[in-house]
Amino acid sequence: MEENRLTKMEKKTLQQHINDDIDELDNVDLNPQRRRHIVSELDQLEQYQVNHPDTDHDPNPLELFCDLNPDEPECKVFDL
Q: In angstroms, rounded to a whole number, what is the distance separating the alpha carbons of residues 77 and 80?
């Protein structure tokens, strides 16, 4: 159990996330909705990787969204 908890706490790299998505797509029993989600996520991750070649951290969904939509209100950053 302790080993499991430590594994979940480890941070995944961007490339590991991409590889995990590719592996998941190889599953023939994957339901269509999940498959569409993974394909979309994989496209976003690969685009993020192209846009940020020097970054290897696994981006969260907001980072992916803002990378593709920087002008959206939730992506605006204001200096105070």
A: 10
In a domain, 39, yes or no: yes
Judged against a pLDDT cut of 50, whether residue 6 lies above it is answered with no
Residues 57-70, mean pLDDT to the nearest whole number: 95
pTM recorded for the entire structure: 0.78
- Residue ranges making up the domain that contains 51: 11-75
Does residue 1 sit within a domain?
Answer: no
Query: How many structural domains comprise the chain?
Result: 1
- 32 falls in which pLDDT band (50, 70, 90)? very high
Q: 13-22: long-range contacts at Cβ-Cβ below 8 A with a sequence spacing of 24 or more?
A: 13/56, 13/57, 13/58, 14/45, 14/48, 14/49, 14/55, 14/56, 14/57, 14/58, 14/59, 15/49, 15/56, 16/58, 17/45, 17/58, 18/42, 18/45, 18/46, 18/49, 21/45
